[in-house]
Write a structure and sequence with these properties.
The chain is built from nine helices and seven strands; from the N terminus they run αααββααβαββααβαβ. It is α/β, with parallel strands linked by helices. A five-stranded mixed beta sheet has the order 3-4-5-6-7, with helices on both faces. The chain has a two-stranded antiparallel ribbon with strand order 1-2. Strand 1 and strand 2 form a beta hairpin. It is globular, with a radius of gyration of 19 Å. It comes from Alienimonas chondri. This is Protein involved in plasmid replication-relaxation.
């Protein structure tokens, strides 16, 4: 992915700062974002009000689109706007709201990578980046948009695949994880990463209680991969329990 800012924005969109370009590149990578995440990443020394001013300006210029996160919560999330789509060479469909399942997945990956400080830097991989690192993961059923690269301050990087809890029971999630591992273990380069403990299967759920249940259920059987199970409470309004 080319991170160099374009020479100028389209006519009528207004002049963009370097930070504005960084925000748009962030959105291109993560597909959705929130004011809180933008504040943590790009406004560390500013109040949330400063974030709101920049977001309002970018939204007015068509660079951001605002959508309701979950009915009745009053919370919003952002996608690229129509002007940003033209600037970044994206389909203008990207400016619309995400479908319920896609929103939950994208929001979970955003919170996992950018929602808080972690020991390792976490980055969602664009499909083009995954293609250069592990092209065998681009096949059907491999969910090329759900991989993350985790880079510790010291040591080697780790490739992760994110499994998001959409409200199923714990047994359902464990079965999904088993299928995830089985499909990827058949790829020689991925099996090598598994053997080297450089591949992790990440499970993101909406509550600490569910996190502990999933962790304990996974620990009851042997696996070829490492697991990381994390809770992101911000997902709770988006999760609807599935029928048993």
């Amino acid at each position: 992915m080319n991170d160099r800012p374009p020479p100028r924005p389209p006519a009528g969109g207004g002049k963009l700062s370097d930070r504005d370009y960084e925000i748009l590149r962030h959105l291109k990578r993560y597909r959705v974002t929130t004011r809180e995440v933008l504040g943590r990443l790009f406004f560390r020394d500013s109040e949330l009000n400063a974030v709101s001013k920049v977001v309002s300006r970018l939204e007015k210029g068509g660079y951001l689109s605002s959508h309701e996160l979950a009915s009745g919560t009053g919370r919003r999330y952002y996608t690229v706007g129509a002007t940003a789509c033209r600037l970044l060479g994206l389909s203008t469909r990207k400016a619309g709201p995400r479908g319920p399942q896609a929103l939950l997945t994208d929001y979970a990956i955003l919170l996992y990578c950018c929602g808080r400080e972690t020991e390792s830097a976490r980055k969602r991989l664009a499909v083009s980046e995954l293609a250069s690192k592990q092209p065998n993961l681009l096949g059907k059923g491999m969910d090329a948009g759900r991989y993350v690269l985790e880079t510790p301050a010291v040591g080697v990087s780790t490739l992760g695949f994110v499994r998001v809890d959409h409200g199923g029971d714990v047994a359902h999630i464990v079965r999904k994880c088993a299928a995830d591992v089985e499909k990827r273990a058949g790829i020689r380069s991925i099996r090598q990463l598994m053997d080297e403990r450089r591949f992790v299967l990440v499970v993101v759920t909406a509550s600490e209680d569910k996190r502990l249940e999933i962790r304990d259920a996974l620990a009851r059987r042997p696996w070829l991969v490492q697991f990381r199970v994390e809770a992101a409470s911000g997902l709770a309004p988006l999760v609807s329990p599935l029928p048993a």
